[in-house]
Amino acid sequence: MAKITQLLSMYSLMGLIRHLRMRIFGKELLITGNCHCCGNCCRKINLEGVGGWLRSEKEYHAVLDEYPEYERFQITGKDDQGFLQFSCTWLTDQNLCRDHDNRLPLCTNFPDKSLYFCGGTLPPGCGYTIVEVRAFDKYLEDEVKGEGK
Ligand code: SF4
Ligand code: SF4
Predict the structure, then answer these.
(1) CB atoms within 10 A of CB 70
(2) CA-CA distance, 75 to 70, in Å (whole number)?
(3) How confident is the model at residue 111 (pLDDT cuts 50, 70, 90)?
(4) Measured at the alpha carbon of residue 105, what is the angle toward residues 93 and 95, in degrees to the nearest 5?
(5) Which label site among 1, 33, 37, 126 has the fewest CB atoms less than 10 Å from its CB?
(6) pTM of this structure
């Protein structure tokens, strides 16, 4: 039970289903595309704390104690899965980052695969896509077994 609770804090129910389905079918995630600076990933975003994706204001304040740089985010509500949603106060009216050189790792790494496993989707209009594909080592295994012809 503790294991399931721990997994759900990392993945959400939808994310856990995705994770298990991919393991069963030997799939991995592929991210393709590019950024066209719409700014939508700086709005309505979920944030991750030490214990998983943030669900309460209390959890957010615990993150702030350790990472004051997260003060740039404002809580705007909750999503369908009960995770807090934030918007970044550094986003300008031109949909640009106020201090691009000092963005957080979560900004430079976007879109991270963990988004998919918290049950999330890319923001509307994002230039990237995340798709499940058959893992490369599965193709190799087929070749070794002579089934890839
Ligand atoms: S710091 Fe910049 S890139 Fe990161 S969420 Fe805020 S506005 Fe967006
Ligand atoms: S939502 Fe996608 S396209 Fe828009 S700024 Fe973020 S990464 Fe770029």
Answers:
(1) 19
(2) 11
(3) very high
(4) 10
(5) 1
(6) 0.78
Residue 98 backbone phi and psi in degrees, to 5: -60, -30
Inform me whether the pLDDT recorded for 103 exceeds 80.
yes
Region 25-30: what's the mean pLDDT? 93
In angstroms, what is the span from residue 30 Cα to ligand 1's centroid?
Answer: 24
Cα 30 to middle of ligand 2, angstroms:
17
Can you read off the two tokens belonging to residue 80? 């369908």
* Residue 6 clears pLDDT 70, i.e. is over it: no
Which residue has 């939808």 as its token pair? Answer: 14
- Compute the distance between CA of residue 82 and CA of residue 93 in angstroms, rounded to an integer: 28
Mutate-to-test residue for ligand 1 from 88, 92, 109, 126, highest number of ligand atoms within 8 A of CB: 88
Q: Which two tokens stand for residue 19?
A: 């994770």
